[in-house]
Structures are given as C-alpha cells and as structure tokens.
# Entry
Amino acid sequence: MSAAIFTQRGAPVEKQRAACIDYALGQHWPVLAIVPYWHPDDAVTLAKTGRIDHVVAAFDSKAVQQLAADVDGDAQVIVVHPTPRVIEPPKHKLGTLGELILRWFRNGKTVKEIAADVDGDTDDVRAILRRYGENPGRSS
# Structure
C-alpha cells in the first residue's frame, strides 16, 4: 500500500501536507509523491499504473471530486479533514449510444462486434468512434 498527497489551492500547503502525511503514516503507507493542484493528472497516472493505492487530500472540494472520478477506482481518494473518509467515484450512467460504443471499443470490442450488438453498420460505428477521437482503423 502506498499513497500520494494531493495539495489544493486555497489553503496553506504546509498545513495540507502535514495533515496528509500524518494520516498516511498513521496508516503505515509510504508517501510516493506530493501532487500539486495544477497537476492532478500525475495522481491519476500513478493510480492507473498501480504505483499508488491511495490519494490523500486535506479537504473535500470540486477538484477532489473530479480526481475521484478520474482515478475511477484505481486508487482510493481520501480526505482527512474534518474526519477521514473515502470519496467514491461517481457511478457510471449508461450515457448515449455513442458513449456506450466508445466504452465497448476501449474495452476491446471490435468494430464488427459493436456493429452486430447495435444492429448497425461498421461504417457508422467507425464514424462515431472518430467523433470521440478514436482511430478505429480502415474507413471502408
């Protein structure tokens, strides 16, 4: 188990670090990184690559809520003030058909499989994926 500390704008950084380090050490977690508010993507990368299991922040905020969504369960996001608690990532909604196609594609389904599942054409599926910034391959 390891942690990163996420410092936020609007409060003294030293107080945030101290509170987070005290909490992490109390849990016997080594602190691998201190992530500043202008680079939350560093914490996401550390979580997604398995380098950390926890992101500790001093207080809850919109930035912490967004971080929990971005980490999406790859690490726990914990705020320590006023009492320690885990910030749960938001539950995924089904979303639009395009978002569903995108999730399927990113989870390894082929364009042909997706087209069969939605009873559609592979050209239409490729066009949707391109709109979402993906490169689904040939354009036939």
